[in-house]
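Annotated sample (chain length 254).
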Amino acid sequence: MAQIVSLAASLRTETGKGPARQARFRGQVPAVIYGHGRTAQSLTVEAKALEQALTGVEPASTIIELALDGKKTKTLIREIQRHPIRPDIIHVDFYEIHAEEKVTLKVPVHLVGAPDGVRNAGGVLDQVTREVEIEVLPEHIPDRVELDVTALKIGDSLHVHALTIPNATILTPPDQTIATIVPPRAEEVAAPAPEATAEVAEPELIRKVREDEEEGAEGEGAAKPEGKAEAKPKAEKAEKPKGGAEKPKGGKES
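Output written by the structure step:
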């Protein structure tokens, strides 16, 4: 059953961005209440009291009993707006409900149990749908809906038609997937394709550079013999004088 939380509210006569900013500066949250043909009324609620009232509950399926002008009105929260940077609530929409009138709302789906495909095969539990829309009387509003996923193996799925919500009509399509077990995602880690390609390509570039260097070295080696050929006559002159050893002048042969 849905929880009922009491909250005090005050009528707000001034509307617009300026008065709304001033209300937030005073620690109040601008709000509005509508439903059952009533004209939308601007309200303010204390920011701390609102945060405390919503702590530990599911806001969408919690009945808020507003104390307004000495009367208590049961409502549901239709929308909560928060600051884009801070977690502060900056606006709330309340929808008035009556005990004898069915309401349409969304309730969260909580998965329970450890799937077989996760425990024994290393699969991953993927929850696709986190809330379903139902039509129900206020007294039968569930706080949440639980779905047992213990028997799921890899490749198995559970759909909306597997849910059972007493005294409520499920409006979400019955074939919509709620949870599935997908294979292990370790395969993604074992494929660093860009790095592997770079490592293979690097030796090819090195070999190409070395081949270019060897071709350059061969070209230089081919030019050197010509230089040696020019230097060869000088080396021959230095070996020994032509005509053999000269005899000393005036000497006798022994």
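Annotation: The chain has four helices and 14 strands.
Annotation: The chain has a mean pLDDT of 80.
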